[in-house]
Design goal:
Chain lengths: 168, 327
């Protein structure tokens, strides 16, 4: 069964072709680079919060780590934007791969956990450090697992696709 | 500058530097001199870092001479295998040295013996021996005037025969790395996880020094550094394994070499942070305190260089075959 035709339509647009085929260093690899920057901001900041909630660097006060959440949201926004561009560059490659949907689902869960972490642990300024850790430890563990899974699913996109471009 | 030049320029450092560091280390043990011991541990770590591009530059050097008359491929292979084993022990020595430096923070000036120091002693002695063999087998490739005059592969002593059996065969090792795309995918996955671990911890420390999230006290934040080192270690291992799997691909690639240069500069950056008093100047800064200019400068440089490393790493794929000398 051939992949749906709209994939070919996207691929044939000038923008998609330019992203995919341009020799310019500011085309595909530039987008991929910012997707990696976004990953570094989003998961890097997340991991520090998770590790602290799980008992690493206990002497560090938890409350000011609230300031790391904007970094995570900026990273997420960057990756949503660059992610859309990467799909436009290779629509058939990504949208025909089940791993792509698995990745999106995992990221969905991870962002949900991140949001819960922020609301339940960091938004209530009356909580003591002990309460924050008690509330956050389980979420932090899930956050770590989900982000590691998201990175893995993302990496696997480079190795599991069925079509690179629309089959002719 | 070409690859043989680069290889010759670099390859004396890990060999001679490790001998010097071991000498200083032994003297520091006898004299119970903490400063000297730290100096020797820093030298071990620096040599472990320099050994990486030294090892990488070997492939290009091989490419330049392998077609010359009188150059034996078998001798080159033996040298490469010896280098792989020595590199393994060099990196373990460097890792234990960093652990020792980390543990010695804030302790008295009296050098204390502990299990980490035993490990440094053991692994550095083995490294010095293996490095000597790397130097000798390397010299055999292109220096008939030394006297061994080997054009064929011969193992003269019992010890070198024994060691050569422990050394991996470079070509078989490369095959092993690339045999399965899932193994390769796994290594690359770990490389990204290491990246996140490293940039997350170091990046936040750098940002705090630059004035972001000033409510975080720096001393406790700095306790995250071992996680950054773990991330770096993970990427060092996966990076070296990837190189041994596809050495031609990485060797003739500008993005790869500039990335290596950036990583060496980061070594200088870390040394500047801990050895110029910048660390002491920020260590006790509490909520709301501002870091002095030198610490800010070092933090900004670190952020810039780490993002440069990510950038250059991402561009390796699109810069393949950009170096054409001696291929």
């Amino acid at each position: 069964m051939a992949p749906p035709l709209f994939l070919q339509t996207i691929e044939d647009t000038g923008f998609s072709t330019w992203l995919r085929e341009s020799e310019s260093p500011f085309a595909f690899y530039f987008i991929l680079l910012f997707h990696t920057f976004g990953l570094a901001l989003l998961v890097g900041a997340n991991m520090v919060v998770d590790l602290r909630l799980l008992g690493v660097a206990r002497a560090m006060p938890l409350a000011p780590l609230k300031r790391l959440f904007p970094i995570m949201w900026i990273g997420l926004a960057m990756n949503a934007a660059t992610g859309v561009l990467l799909v436009i560059a290779y629509p058939t490659k990504s949208l025909t791969n089940p791993d792509f949907y698995a990745k999106l689902a995992i990221i969905g869960f991870a962002v949900w956990v991140m949001h819960k972490l922020r609301k339940q642990v960091f938004d209530d300024s009356n909580l003591s450090e002990l309460d924050m850790t008690a509330r956050g430890a389980a979420l932090a563990k899930w956050s770590l697992i989900l982000w590691l899974a998201a990175i893995t699913a993302g990496r696997l996109l480079a190795y599991t696709y069925k079509y690179l471009t629309y089959p002719s | 500058m070409n690859f043989p030049h680069l290889h010759l320029l670099l390859n004396h450092f890990p060999i001679i530097g490790t001998i010097v560091a071991l000498g200083l280390f032994l003297i520091s043990l006898v004299g119970k001199n903490e400063d000297l011991r730290r100096a020797s541990l820093i030298t071990f770590a620096a040599m472990a870092l320099l050994a990486i591009p030294t090892f990488f530059s070997g492939t290009g050097a091989q490419g330049a001479i392998k077609k010359l008359p009188g150059v034996s491929e078998a001798l080159i292979e033996r040298h490469q295998g010896a280098a792989m084993l020595a590199l393994l022990f060099m990196e373990i020595t460097g890792a234990f040295s960093l652990v020792g430096l980390w543990k010695s923070q804030g302790t008295s000036t009296r050098a204390r013996w502990n299990s980490t120091m035993s490990a440094v002693l053991l692994f550095s002695v083995v490294t010095v021996g293996l490095m000597a063999r790397v130097g000798t087998t390397g010299g055999d490739i292109r220096h008939p005037e030394i006297g061994t005059g080997q054009e064929e592969l011969t193992e003269d002593s019992v010890i070198s025969k024994m060691i050569s059996r422990l050394e991996p065969s470079p070509s078989k090792f490369a095959e092993l790395m690339t045999a399965s795309k899932w193994w390769w995918a796994f290594m690359m996955d770990l490389h990204f996880i290491g990246l996140v671990l490293l940039i997350g911890t170091v990046g936040i420390l750098d940002l705090r020094m630059l004035g972001f999230a000033k409510q975080i006290p720096i001393g406790p934040l700095h306790r995250l550094v071992p996680w950054a080192m773990a991330g770096f270690g993970l990427n060092l291992v996966t990076g070296v394994l990837a190189f041994t799997g596809m050495d031609q691909y990485y060797t003739y690639n500008w993005a790869f070499w500039i990335k290596m240069l950036a990583i060496m500069l980061l070594g200088v950056n870390v040394a500047a942070f801990y050895l110029t008093g910048a660390f002491e100047s920020v260590e006790s800064l509490g909520p709301g305190d501002d870091a002095p200019p030198l610490a800010k400068f070092i933090a900004a440089t670190s952020l810039f260089l780490w993002f440069a490393v990510i950038t250059l790493g991402r561009y390796i794929q699109s810069y393949s075959d950009t170096i054409s000398v001696h291929k």
